Amino acid sequence: VPKFEDGNTLFDIFALEAVSKLTAFNSQEISNMIWAYATAKESHPKLFERVAEHIAGLERLNQFKPQGLSNIVWAYATAGE
Length: 81
What we know:
Elements: H1 10-20, H2 27-39, H3 45-57, H4 66-79
Helix pairs in contact: 1-3, 2-4
């Protein structure tokens, strides 16, 4: 993955932006994002940590469909998070 002059990749930049806007993401968007990072073999510990905290803090986990939850669990296992 190419890096910018500051050493960050596009994945790093997206992760930092996503962390600051997690409450704006719906369950499907969270699932897709985490799945994409794992599929691309791009681990971003801060993103994965903040997403986990966000999901655990949700009062309505029922908004996640089974497939979305499966994708999230797969992503964490695949990324080693």
